[in-house]
C-alpha cells in the first residue's frame, strides 16, 4: 500500500511528513491486518500494533467532528468507510450528501444524544455509541418501532464515575444492560467508554472489557488518538481516532 500525496489534502506536522517521505522512498508501507485503517493514517505507528491486537479485528472509526467535506471525501476516496461524529446537528449538515455518494459508509454517533434529537439520529446514524440512561433507551425504542430503522447500539459506561461526564456508572451497568437488551429488546451489541484525562486508561479499558464479557457483549469501543494502542491491547473492536489522522481540530 503506497502513500499518495493526493490523499493528504491537509497539512501534517513536519516530523510526520518526514517519516512519510522516508516510507515513500522505501516503496510504501503495509498496515497490519488487525486494523482497518485509512491509507494515510500515521504510518510510523503501525509497527506498534502487531503485538497489541488480541481482538479478531479492530475497526478504525475516523472522527470527523469539525472536518469539512473535502477532508471526509479524501478519506472515502482512500477507501475508508467508518466515521464518527459527535453532534447530530453537525452530522445532519454534511452526511446526507456524503452517504448518497458513498452509500456503504457507516456513520457512528460518538457524542451525547438528547432525546429531542432521537428521530434525526436514528434516521442518519448506523451506530449510536452513547446510550446511557433509561429515558433515552425508551425514546430509541419508540422511534425504532415507529420508523422501522434500528441502528446498532453501544452503552456508554462512565468508568471513572466523573460527574461531568455522560455514561452509566459501572455498578449500574448490569441493570441498565438488562433493561435495554432484555426488556426493551434494543439492539445493544457493545460498550463504550472515555477514561478520565488525568488517569491511566488501561484500568478503565480492562473494566469495560470485563463488563462486556460478563454480559456477552462482543463489541468494545474504547481508545482515541492518545491511547488507542492500549485499548487494542485490551481487546477494543473499535477505536475512535480523529486528531492522529486529521491533525488538531479547528475551534468550534
Would you kindly provide a written description of the structure presented here, covering whatever features stand out?
It is a single chain. By secondary structure, the protein is of the alpha/beta class. The protein has a single domain (32-246), classed as TIM Barrel. 36% of the residues lie in helices and 15% in strands. It has nine helices and nine strands. The chain has helices at 14-25, 69-77, 88-101, 118-124, 134-147, 173-183, 202-214, 228-233, 243-246, and strands at residues 35-36, 58-63, 82-85, 106-109, 127-131, 152-156, 188-192, 219-221, 238-241. Strands 1, 2, 3, 4, 5, 6, 7, 8 and 9 form a nine-stranded parallel β-sheet that branches. Helix 3 (88-101) links the parallel strand 3 (82-85) and strand 4. Helix 4 (118-124) crosses helix 5.
Give the SSE map.
Blueprint: H1 14-25, E1 35-36, E2 58-63, H2 69-77, E3 82-85, H3 88-101, E4 106-109, H4 118-124, E5 127-131, H5 134-147, E6 152-156, H6 173-183, E7 188-192, H7 202-214, E8 219-221, H8 228-233, E9 238-241, H9 243-246
Parallel strand pairs: 1-2, 2-3, 2-9, 3-4, 4-5, 5-6, 6-7, 7-8
Amino acid at each position: 500500500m503506497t502513500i499518495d500525496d493526493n490523499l493528504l489534502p491537509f497539512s501534517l506536522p513536519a516530523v510526520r511528513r518526514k517519516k512519510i517521505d522516508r516510507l515513500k522512498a522505501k516503496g510504501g508501507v503495509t498496515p497490519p491486518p488487525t486494523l482497518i485503517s485509512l491509507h494515510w493514517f500515521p504510518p510510523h505507528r503501525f509497527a506498534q500494533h502487531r503485538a497489541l491486537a488480541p481482538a479478531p479485528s479492530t475497526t478504525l472509526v475516523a472522527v470527523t467532528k469539525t472536518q469539512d467535506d473535502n477532508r471526509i471525501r479524501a478519506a472515502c476516496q482512500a477507501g475508508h468507510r467508518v466515521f464518527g461524529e459527535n453532534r447530530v446537528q453537525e452530522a445532519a449538515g454534511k452526511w446526507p450528501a456524503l452517504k448518497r455518494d458513498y452509500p456503504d459508509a457507516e456513520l457512528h454517533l460518538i457524542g451525547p444524544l438528547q432525546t429531542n434529537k432521537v428521530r434525526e439520529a436514528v434516521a442518519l446514524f448506523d451506530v449510536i455509541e452513547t446510550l446511557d440512561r433509561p429515558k433515552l433507551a425508551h425514546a430509541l425504542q419508540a422511534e425504532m418501532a415507529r420508523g422501522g430503522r434500528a441502528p446498532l447500539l453501544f452503552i456508554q459506561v462512565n468508568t471513572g464515575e466523573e460527574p461531568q461526564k455522560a455514561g452509566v456508572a459501572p455498578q449500574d451497568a448490569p441493570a441498565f444492560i438488562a433493561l435495554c437488551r432484555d426488556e426493551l429488546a434494543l439492539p445493544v451489541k457493545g460498550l463504550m467508554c472515555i477514561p478520565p484525562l488525568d488517569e491511566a486508561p488501561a484500568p478503565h479499558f480492562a473494566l469495560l472489557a470485563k463488563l462486556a464479557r460478563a454480559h456477552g457483549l462482543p463489541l468494545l469501543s474504547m481508545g482515541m488518538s492518545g491511547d488507542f494502542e492500549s485499548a487494542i491491547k485490551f481487546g477494543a473492536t473499535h477505536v475512535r481516532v480523529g486528531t492522529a489522522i486529521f491533525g488538531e481540530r479547528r475551534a468550534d
